[in-house]
Design goal:
The chain is built from seven helices and no strands. It is mainly α. Helix 6 packs antiparallel against helix 7.
Length: 175
């Protein structure tokens, strides 16, 4: 149970095979492209919910949310860069993430309105996803099962640690 349901987009580009399936459909350059992309991702979301595959549904939801946030970033910042320097650039200079300087939001740059509208397209679909009854149910079941799984892992670890410190044969049979 290595997957974690996160509030935002955490893990969206690292959890396979979903990343490879969904990433090619994630696009937001124009409103028309955002509509097509968000509907394709929503279809994948619906498929995963029907299949009771929470991880797939949550990954699709994350890509939809990422469409909303990235399009909004391009609407707010010309070129989509929120900070003067990236984490990698700062690292190369021997600085840390806390040293990042945030750019001022730009106004009136070319494509601003288009990106803001694309963000709204994704936002509508994202709201549908987070309010989907099937998704909400799957999420609750997943959280409950993960909590039980974590309790079991903790018990096994506790048993293993205890058996190392006391009579190994006696403890092993009671665990």
């Amino acid at each position: 149970m290595s997957y974690a349901i996160a509030r935002g987009e955490v893990g969206v580009l690292s959890f396979e095979p979903y990343k490879s399936i969904l990433l090619p459909h994630w696009r937001f350059r124009t409103v028309l492209i955002a509509k097509e992309s968000s509907q394709t991702l929503k279809s994948a979301f619906d498929h995963y919910v029907r299949s009771e595959d929470l991880v797939g549904a949550d990954m699709a939801r994350k890509f939809i949310q990422m469409g909303m946030t990235r399009a909004r970033r391009y609407a707010n910042y010309k070129g989509g860069r929120k900070y003067e320097k990236s984490e990698k650039e700062l690292e190369a200079e021997g600085k840390v993430k806390a040293d990042r300087v945030r750019k001022e939001k730009s106004a009136g740059h070319d494509g601003r309105e288009e990106k803001a509208a694309a963000s709204e397209v994704f936002k509508e679909v994202w709201r549908e996803c987070i309010e989907d009854e099937g998704y909400v149910r799957l999420k609750e079941v997943w959280k409950k099962e993960k909590k039980e799984w974590e309790k079991g892992v903790a018990l096994i670890l506790e048993c293993n640690l205890t058996s190392c410190n006391i009579n190994t044969h006696a403890m092993a049979s009671s665990c």
